[in-house]
Specification:
The complex is a heterotrimer of chains A (504), B (158) and C (334). With 504 residues, chain A is mainly alpha-helical. Helices cover 74% and strands 1% of the residues of chain A. Chain A has one domain. In chain A, helix 6 packs across helix 13, helix 14 packs across helix 16 and helix 16 packs parallel to helix 17. In chain B, helix 1 packs antiparallel against helix 2 and helix 3 packs antiparallel against helix 4. Chain B starts with a helix and ends with a helix. By secondary structure, chain C is α/β, with parallel strands linked by helices. Chain C folds into two domains: 155 residues, 3-Layer(aba) Sandwich (D-Maltodextrin-Binding Protein, domain 2); 127 residues, Periplasmic binding protein-like II (D-Maltodextrin-Binding Protein, domain 2), CATH 3.40.190.10. The longest helix of chain C is centred in the N-terminal third of the chain and has 20 residues. The chains are: A mainly alpha (504), B mainly alpha (158), C alpha/beta (334). Chains A and C meet through helix 3, helix 17 and helix 22 of A and helix 2, helix 3 and helix 7 of C. Strand 1 of chain A pairs antiparallel with strand 1 of chain B.
């Protein structure tokens, strides 16, 4: 196995494969940056060129592009509050808040560095998982997937904010999200729900138009009201800003590592989708804060809120590849496209990739690592210039932000319906911010809704009620309970502290 | 007991939950189970929030939601005006896209906003419009071949 | 004398050279858009992109061919769009879900197209649906499945897909003892569930199951009408039907599979342009490199001409009312 590891590395560094990787990185850089240009869509476009390539070149090209989008996708989230990809919305909460405090450089530095760490962890997981991957993936059946989704919903408790009222609103938002997820065909029998005769809603709501409107539009409105630069009156820090962010990643190294593991694990579980990892990592970052005052800093510009999702996004890549390579089951929609590449270059995903073609598998591992190292290194060169954008007069930026928002959502279906969805959720997002309802739980509900429904039905239809007794199911359920209990306990302690402070 | 706008919001959510519940009536159990399971807690929670919001206790109720807060440094009347104005611009952009089609609406909107709302100097405006047009055309039209149907007005004129 | 000869020669020249400067349709300098009814990455999108790369050299004038995605309502949106708004100038081609004629037949709400009025180019390949069961189970033939106890668990994505529709009819008409569990997000997930022993097997297109057949994970039991040589020896569902009505319904489900990857252009397109496109597509389907790439990608390329496709469409749309009624009771095409 060790020689395959080295073989993979040398193959990737050969000029042939390496030059394709560089092209991929170049493409991926902008794809991640621009809202609406999805990593998945671009993969489909690039697939057309892969036919004549050798396997290692092909994957250096494709993965070089794709593994980088998660890294640069955070940039527009942080600078402008517009999610560059569907998977980078969580970075907006604290990342953009930091930009508004003048700490854009620091946020960018933290985000990129944690992305790199996450990518390495994910790639390492892929490499290490090779001997155990098949039993690992086979343990997680539909009941386990359902429970993980329940765990995700339980973590809403941590994403709501401080106080019981905030938690009430958090679960309200979560239920709203779960409800919105019901729009479209029901997973069991395909009967259309809540479509009101609109052909556009036949497939349910696409995530990207919703996210773009939900997060970007309230920020744009606020920017118009403030009439200042994004960074307000704070002076944007210079190089120390970015370096500070890098140092932050290492200051909170265990958090970075744990969030990377969360991301990898979610990636390994096929069927959970890409958007879940960032929010669960964010929830974990919140839970790692011990005191209520510490937790209250999330959402206002705490660097840990940038590190968590940043790491999870990238580690998810490595995780996604595991079921894709070992079983031919895509860990996400982008992986489904990548599967096409396997066949085009003459490979068949499955046990062969872990034995006969192990070097190719390891070349993918190295591609993720090398591509991210190059991207992060290259980005540092002009991160400061990018951070300066937050000092420009806000009103000059607004037309471009709106342009990016609208075109970003349009590319979901190439239909005006996408923009209508963006506007509707933009309004909803604004109202929720105004009346202090947390938005993150709604997104989590939206993303998890279909998963919860599907796997609950499959589990019950297949196993009756016996699935409740499966060991993995019980363990994950206890974890969900622990999450909720700890959040409630925090509230209780906070209330007692406040009571004691008032009494004293 | 004062009815504040935010009480209205939670009431609307409750109403939506009730409506969603009613709409599930004709569906089979396979289709209706999930929406019903979600709509009921949604209704209950929304009504709870509505009741809480009617009790006027502004100070203690400063809810810290894990999200950003709208800027407070601006005089409320001015803030309202600016909010309405930006809403108008946003919907205006959408209307432009519907009437003129994306390719024309983008430079028109950028120009209109920069001159109209931002009062940017002519040179800067023209420069930025050119940038917007170049990015839009080069990337989304030429490179990606995204389909942009012509606007309603143009179709009427043909 | 000389002048008469010159005159005759000139006249002859004019007559002989006439075809050269008569209006010859050409695509020089033009761009053809192939509109795909699905998001990038799926089967329809991939074959469209492959065709888009090889088509230009087989059309006069070597146009640029681009692909645009218009996903929505299982490609009904794309079909509607091309039917109602595309100009009949040979510059817009569409590819959509092969089952859309069935959607028209059962009068799905939202359908605004008439399949017979499209200018049909043809289909690049046909689909072959099979039912495959885990090899470690003792079922080898369809009679085994009829007698299976407990019921064999089949994973499916949902109604409207062959993963669900095919076993549904097998259970209803051939009385195979199947329990269909639907809701899996994709057929690849069903495959994983099979390996996990959560389900006992699945139905689906031969090309998508082939890798697992070759590895011996699953065994093919029964197939639908359209076939490829490797599985021709399997019994076909229609042939086992107990009566004419059942056979007609099963046949109705399978018929669109013959036009597995249907390409059309706008209604009212002049015949010369349609013929140009047809010839172009035929030549693409015979291009050596295209065939290698397409085969690797899992497509079994076999060009079905536009006329043959139209015949298939008319056959579907002219189904007798009672067959349609039974069919609709099974499938609410959503």
């Amino acid at each position: 196995m060790l020689e395959a590891l080295l073989q993979g590395l040398t193959a990737v560094l050969q000029w042939n494969a390496f030059s394709f990787m560089l092209i991929g990185i170049g493409v991926g850089f902008f794809v991640g940056l621009l809202p609406g240009l999805g990593g998945g869509t671009t993969l489909a476009l690039m697939l057309s060129f892969v036919f004549k390539m050798e396997p290692i070149q092909a994957f250096a090209f494709l993965l070089g592009m794709h593994s980088v989008t998660a890294t640069t996708g955070d940039i527009t989230s942080i600078l402008f509050g517009i999610p560059g990809e569907g998977t980078t919305a969580a970075s907006i909460l604290d990342g953009h808040a930091m930009a508004k405090k003048g700490e854009a450089g620091r946020a960018l530095g933290a985000s990129l560095m944690s992305s790199l760490v996450g990518a390495v962890v994910g790639a390492a997981a892929l490499a290490l998982a090779v001997p155990v991957v098949r039993p690992l993936v086979l343990t997680f059946g539909s009941p386990e997937l359902f429970m993980v989704a329940v765990l995700g919903i339980a973590s809403i408790a941590s994403l709501s904010g401080g106080g019981e009222r905030a938690m009430l609103r958090g679960f309200l938002a979560g239920c709203l999200g779960l409800m919105v997820a019901a729009v479209g065909p029901d997973p069991q029998s395909g009967v259309l729900r809540y479509t009101f005769g609109q052909l556009y809603l036949w497939d349910g709501l696409e995530l990207v138009p919703v996210l773009v409107g939900f997060f970007a539009i309230p920020e744009i409105i606020d920017l118009a009201v403030r009439k200042t630069a994004i960074a307000g009156t704070a002076s944007v820090g210079r190089l120390s800003g970015v370096l500070e962010g890098v140092k932050d990643t290492f200051r909170h190294f265990w958090l970075t590592l744990r969030c990377s593991l969360v991301g990898t694990w979610i990636g390994v579980l096929p069927g959970l989708g890409g958007a879940v990892a960032q929010w669960m990592a964010y929830a974990h970052a919140v839970q790692s804060a011990k005191t209520p005052e510490d937790r209250a800093r999330f959402g206002t510009g705490d660097v840990r809120g940038v590190i968590g999702p940043g790491a999870a996004n990238n580690s998810k890549e490595g995780g996604d590849l595991i079921p894709t390579i070992a079983f031919g089951v895509p860990g996400s929609s982008s992986m489904a496209i990548l599967l096409g590449a396997f066949f085009l270059v003459g490979l068949v995903p499955g046990p062969d990739m872990l034995t006969k073609h192990l070097a190719v598998t390891f070349s993918m591992v190295w591609t993720i690592v090398v591509a991210n190292v190059i991207t992060v290194a290259a980005s540092f060169v002009f991160l400061n210039q990018l951070a300066r954008l937050t000092s420009i007069r806000g009103e000059l930026l607004i037309p471009f932000l709106l342009f990016l928002t609208f075109i970003g959502s349009y590319t979901a279906h190439n239909s005006l319906g996408d923009i209508v969805v963006t506007l509707v959720f933009g309004l909803l997002g604004y109202v929720m911010v105004r009346y202090r309802w947390p938005r993150a739980p709604l997104v989590l509900g939206l993303v998890l809704g279909n998963i919860v429904e599907r796997y609950l039905w499959i589990s019950t239809a297949r196993y009756g009620l016996t699935w409740l007794g499966r060991p993995a199911v019980i363990i994950i359920f206890l974890a969900a309970v622990a999450v909720m209990v700890s959040a409630l306990a925090q509230q209780r302690r906070a209330r007692h502290a406040r009571g004691a402070a008032h009494a004293g | 007991m004062r009815v504040k706008p935010e009480s209205l919001f939670s009431l609307m959510v409750a109403a939506a939950a009730a409506a969603a519940l009613v709409l599930t009536a004709p569906w089979s159990i396979k289709t209706a189970l999930y929406p019903r399971t979600i709509a009921v807690p949604l209704l209950v929670l929304a009504l709870t929030e509505f009741v809480f919001s009617l009790r006027a206790r502004p100070a203690a109720d400063a809810v810290h939601a894990m999200d950003f807060k709208l800027s407070e440094g601006v005089d409320p009347k001015v803030a309202l005006q600016r909010t309405l104005s930006i809403f108008a611009w946003i919907f205006g952009f959408f209307a432009a896209i519907v009437l003129l089609g994306f390719p024309i609406a983008v430079p028109v909107f950028v120009f209109a906003y920069l001159r109209g709302a931002a009062r940017a100097p002519w040179v800067l405006t023209v420069g930025l419009v050119a940038v917007a047009w170049a990015v839009f055309n080069g990337l989304f039209v030429r490179l990606l071949h995204l389909p942009f149907p012509p606007g309603l007005l143009l179709r009427a004129l043909q | 004398m000389q002048r008469i000869v010159a005159f005759v020669l000139a006249a002859l020249l004019v007559v002989v050279l006439e075809p050269l400067y008569a209006q010859q349709p050409s695509y020089a300098g033009k761009t053809i858009s192939i509109i795909v009814g699905y998001a990038p990455g799926g089967g329809y999108d991939r074959i469209a992109r492959m065709v888009a790369r090889y088509l230009p050299k087989y059309l006069p004038g070597n146009p640029t061919v681009i692909v645009q995605n218009m996903a929505g309502a299982n490609s009904i949106v794309a079909a509607n769009h091309v039917y109602t708004t595309a100009k009949p100038d040979g510059l817009t081609v569409a590819i959509f879900n092969r089952n859309l004629p069935l959607g028209q037949l059962v009068k799905v709400e939202g359908v605004r197209y008439d399949m017979t009025k499209f200018a049909w180019i043809g289909s690049m390949s046909s689909e072959t649906t099979i039912l495959a069961i885990r090899s470690d189970l003792p079922y080898r033939t369809y009679t085994d499945l009829q007698k299976a106890e407990p019921a064999v668990v089949i994973g499916a994505t949902g109604p409207g897909a062959n993963t669900y529709d095919f076993p549904l009819l097998l259970r209803a008409f051939l009385k195979l003892n199947l329990r269909i569990i639907s809701g899996y997000p994709s057929s690849a997930d069903i495959m994983l569930a099979t390996e996990r022993k959560e389900v006992d097997g699945r139905a689906g297109s031969y090309s998508s199951i082939k890798a697992w057949l070759d590895r011996g994970v699953v065994r093919p039991i029964i197939r639908a009408r359209a076939s490829v040589p490797e599985i021709a020896r399997l019994p076909a569902d229609e042939d086992l039907a107990p009566d004419a009505r059942a056979k007609a319904v099963m046949s109705l489900r399978s018929t669109p599979e013959i036009i597995g990857r249907p390409f059309v252009t706008a209604p009212g397109t002049p015949p010369e342009l349609v013929n140009l496109l047809r010839e172009g597509f035929v030549k693409v389907s015979q291009d050596r490199e295209f065939l290698t790439e397409a085969t690797r990608a899992g497509f079994d390329i076999e060009f079905v001409s536009g006329d043959a496709a139209l015949k298939v469409i008319r056959e579907v749309l002219n189904s007798p009312a009672d067959v349609v009624r039974i069919f609709s009771s099974f499938f609410k095409f959503e």
